[in-house]
Amino acid sequence: MIRFLFILLLFPLCTNAQSDSIATQEETIDKRIMFRSKVTQLTSYLNEGNGSAAKRLFKSVSDDMQIFIADTKSAMDSTKGSEHKKLEQKFDRQQQLFMQFQRFEPNLIRNKSSINTWTDQFIQTLY
């Protein structure tokens, strides 16, 4: 009987922790989907030759990249061992891709194929 009551008391705590974990995972997935959507729209603007809209969206994509890099850095700071090493490699790759991406800003239309390549590679680091 006491075990049953103990389980009943712990059940709400366990389900809240589990739902928080699921919510965090869904939020991460949503961020990645939104980022991919912005990249697709940026590519569309570049293909249409719409430089002014592309420039605005380029800034937004850059900001999102910085957020993902900061998230990776935060995760890296809270881990050790082999997981830390994997996150460190991911962090370095994301920074490298971000810096390359920034170099394309002065002439977006001319660099559209490179922008597409670098953003696709950055998206791969998110999974």
Question: What ranges have pLDDT less than 50 throughout 5 or more consecutive residues?
Answer: 15-21
Give the biggest sheet: none
The overall number of domains is 1
Helix share bin: over 70%
Strand percentage, roughly? under 5%
Count up the helices: 4
What's the N-to-C terminus distance?
46 Å
Question: What is the mean pLDDT?
Answer: 83
- Outline, from the CA principal axes? elongated
Number of strands: 0
Which H/E pattern describes the elements?
HHHH
Structural class call reads mainly alpha
C-alpha Rg, in Å? 20 Å
What kind of assembly state do the chains in view correspond to?
Answer: single chain
Written account of the structure:
The protein has 127 residues and is mainly α. The chain has one domain (2-125). Helices cover 87% and strands 0% of the residues. The chain contains 4 helices and no strands. It has helices at 2-48, 51-77, 81-103, 112-125. Helix 1 packs antiparallel against helix 2, helix 1 runs antiparallel to helix 4 and helix 3 (81-103) runs antiparallel to helix 4. The longest helix has 47 residues, at 2-48. The radius of gyration is 20 Å and the shape is elongated.
